[in-house]
Design goal:
By secondary structure, the protein is mainly alpha-helical. The chain is 74% helix and 0% strand. The chain is built from nine helices and no strands. The mean pLDDT is 89.
Length: 199
């Protein structure tokens, strides 16, 4: 029984890994289920058994990436002494994700008009999961008095929008330039939320 379960798990992981490679190389639309089947050395029935559809398979990969992003941040945040330092660290962590091989395919997928609305809702839920990191940092800063008293949700959305919006520059700038830009953005954000007597 355990051997059979491990065999199914191995098959699922192999399919996911090969699909990730293909989506990263070819993009979401240009990768077909047939491509994934051939690359994984699997059957169509096996792919549908584990994932249900190409959309669900891609969503599974995004979910795994999101969990990994969250886990890496949980380990990384321990090194920062202040909440402000955490914000700089978060910006750095955000920029590191630009090297994620699924980034372009994810943008293509989320902008797709053909994607199932339910799947898009699940994708938005994953984005909201990342926002909990932003929320906890802002809340911690307000509670400690490091940041002004303000609406945590509003500050979280502003911070999230700032980091996400700056990502558009990724296609026009070198990675180190992007890192510097994100540091400046956090400095500007902190200036707006730090009490005047702490500046």
């Amino acid at each position: 029984m355990e051997k059979q379960h491990r065999k199914k798990t191995d098959a699922k992981e192999r399919i996911a890994q090969k699909a990730k490679e293909l989506f990263s190389q070819k993009g979401y639309a240009a990768t077909s289920i047939e491509d994934i089947i051939a690359a994984a050395g699997s059957s169509k029935g096996n792919v549908y058994y584990h994932f249900g559809s190409k959309e669900k398979l891609f969503l599974y990969l995004i979910e795994e990436d999101t969990k990994e992003w969250m886990e890496k941040w949980q380990r990384k945040q321990e090194q920062y002494a202040t909440t402000a330092d955490k914000l700089y660290g978060l910006a750095e962590h955000y920029v590191d994700d630009f090297q994620n091989p699924l980034l372009k395919a994810g943008e293509e997928f989320s902008g797709s008009q053909t994607a199932d609305p339910e799947t898009l809702q699940e994708l938005l839920a994953l984005m909201r999961m990342q926002r909990t990191v932003y929320y906890s940092i802002v809340e911690e800063g307000i509670t400690s008095g490091e940041f002004k008293q303000m609406d945590v949700q509003d500050a979280t959305l502003i911070l999230f929008g700032l980091l996400a919006g700056l990502g558009a520059n990724y296609y026009e700038m070198e990675l180190e330039e992007i890192r510097a830009l994100y540091r400046k953005a956090i400095t500007v954000f902190l200036y707006g939320i730090t009490p005047e007597n702490a500046r």
